[in-house]
Amino acid sequence: MTKKLGKDRGGVGRRGFLKGASLGGVAALATPMKATQAAESKPSNNTGIAPLTTREAERDLPPAPTAKTGKTPGSDYMLDVFRSLNIEHIAAIPGSTFKGLHESVINYGMRTAPRIDFITCMHEEASVAFSHGYAKVSGKPMACMVHGTVGLQHASMAIYNAWCDRAPVLIVAGAHLDAEKRDGFVDWIHTVNDGPALVREFIKWDDTPASLGHFAESAVRAYKFAMTPPYGPVVLAIDEELQDNPSAEAFPPIPKLSPVTPPRGDDGAVMEAAKILVAAENPVIVADRVARTPQGLAAMIALAEALQAPVIDNRGRMNFPWRHPLNHSSRGRATLGASDCVLGLELTDYMGVSRATPKAAKRISINANDLYMKSSYQNFERYTPVDLAMAADSEATLPALTEAVKRLIDTNKKAALENRGRKHAEAHLAQLKASREAAAIGWDIQPMTTARMCMELYEQIRTEDWAMLSDTDFQTMWPQQLWECDKHYRYIGGSGAYGVGYTAPASMGAAFAHKKEGRLAVAIGGDGDLMFSPGILWTAAHENIPVLYIVHNNRAWHQEVMWIQKMAAERERGIDRAHIGTTISEPHINYAMLAKSMGVYSEGPVTNPNDLAAALKRAIAVVKKGEPALVDVVAQGR
Q1: pTM exceeds cut of 0.90
Q2: Residue 231 to residue 211: CA distance in whole angstroms
Q3: Which of 70, 82, 284, 391 is deepest in the core (most CB within 10 A)?
Q4: Which H, E and C letters describe 451-479, residue by residue?
Q5: Cβ atoms of residues 14 and 477 within 8 Å
Q6: DSSP class per residue in 26-88
């Protein structure tokens, strides 16, 4: 039940919010940000969080003991192969099929340099999601291990998320390949002859090495496949015997990693695209998973400013500054409806864009997914005819496209583009004003609005070196609508496959990567999502991961509430029973108590919006000391 509160007793007042007086970052948005094509610079660390130094790696490493047999196990060699690939962490819940590797990590990897750490998780899905979030921040894979049949089955949803999200994750699946060496019935039911077959349709590559030399080649090959656009997860199934295989002699040499240069568009196609874009009266750029790096963000800005073309960011990554005057993501349908040319960059769903675009509009696509696709899982969406398609990596192609565009712009065209840019800036500011007014509606009600929740958070972090680790779909994209964000690392996109259970463990993995830079990591996750993998809170406490995790507690799987209401209304049965099977109540879950039981500082449930600012401030103080904190916030459905 919605309840209106009396006079403000704290937090951000509605009147002040509308004026922008109390939210300095938002108030500054009254003037469009100055155009910038400079590469992202490293900000000063003003969070107060001490950056991680090689996993507190200044601590002395004790000498690794030599096996009493005098022989080195094969799993030690495997770790040296991982070291050659700059793998620094391995996440896992223990399992007998990789016990050799597990023992090598704790007694060899963690005790010799360069150090490889073991990250203890409570579920295989959490291990993969943690690695997924880490990869999107660090720009490289970390490894995770899963046990036999059951571990890979548990992990499969998280692997599918990584596949759909184009994220590089290196998964090691333990195996019992020799029937004579299986010790009892459990080994048999946890064994499969072809383990990776379970996930083969949604990974980039897999192998089951038969020797240590074979393992070394396969590990390097797997890393290259994972890190070649489009990125994706890979699996190595490693037999127990191979892990144990001891040697008193030299192991095989480790192959050198030869990174693959991302494929860029053909010069002729790039020039043709530039001609179409420059000739268009109302070109629009739509981006999904384009900017893998800060250079990708800078390239997006350079192209948009060269064309003075509006950008619609589908939020797969941090593709474009949220308050740039050419950012028209919040008015995407209107922008597309007025277009005569659309440049789609790494779009998963071009058909959805095309439906909002006039039929006569030209369509250009640059997409690395055209280089690699599988048939069974339908994550490639509807086939969409375009006028010009480049099977290439967008980030690698953008600089050449921008230069081609600039060469085609003469003095007369430049004046027209400047005029177009001014109109787009005015439209951006008008949308910002409308978003601010919409966010102020119901400012003081209970349960609090998602706009109030998001803006109270922003007020606490806006002067910090912050990073948002979660998607904002279920908070009506208020951060993108109202926050100021112009750094690549400040947003990493969502799960990829909309898999429930991703947000909490992936956020912890992302926060773990941000810890090395001393950034203030924050995430907003749903209550239902957290219950899929609540054990990740223990991992956060155990690993001292500084992160502020806000539970958006609407006490339901709210999207499903709406679907059941819609279905019941269509069938004219009434919506009074739509809460059955869709709400999380009777009893309500106290997420603060849940977090506290796992060693995480927590507050809540916060029901009064005027209490939220103080709760967030206290929690952030804990995070700045290098520890995780959780605030349970009871809020509206969206």
Answers
A1: yes
A2: 27
A3: 284
A4: HHHHHHHHHHHCCCCEEECCCCHHHCCHH
A5: no
A6: HHGGGSPPPP--SPPPPPP--S-PPPPSTTTTTSPPPPPPPPTTS-B-HHHHHHHHHHHTT--
